Structures are given as structure tokens and as C-alpha cells.
Amino acid sequence: MKALRIKVNSVRPDLAPHLEKSVESVPHVQAVRVDIDDSCIVVEHDGADPEQVTAALRAEGFEPRNG
Questions:
Q1: CATH class name, domain 2-62
Q2: What is the pTM (predicted TM-score) of this model?
Q3: CA atoms within 13 A on the CB side of 6
Q4: What residue segments make up the domains of the chain, in order of their start?
Q5: Which of 17, 30, 43, 58 has the highest CB neighbour count under 10 A?
Q6: Angle CA 44–41–59, to nearest 5
């Protein structure tokens, strides 16, 4: 299993479960963990397309960013 770590704009604690559910809907995503303090998500996957993951983030109003 691989892990993908993506920084996003500020994530409020009340939005984390919704964000996790949205990203978990991407094919081949096994688990999603939102790190509120670091404003990032960690996606455990088995071959998920990173573009689909970022599209799911954008659909929820989050902007993936580098670093």
C-alpha cells in the first residue's frame, strides 16, 4: 500500500469527516486521515490516481498545494 500526503488550505475539524468521505470515494483509496494541525491529508491507497484525489478535494472546496 502507498501513501500520498497532500497539503490543503485550512481544514476545520467539523469538515474533516466530510472531506475523508469524499476522498475515500476515489477508486483504490483504502483510508484517509486528515491532519488538522498540519493542514494536510494522508491518503493510503493501492494505485489510486492522484489527479482523482485532488479533483475530489477541489470538489469539496479545498485547494491542494505543494509543500
A1: alpha beta
A2: 0.87
A3: 26
A4: 2-62
A5: 43
A6: 100
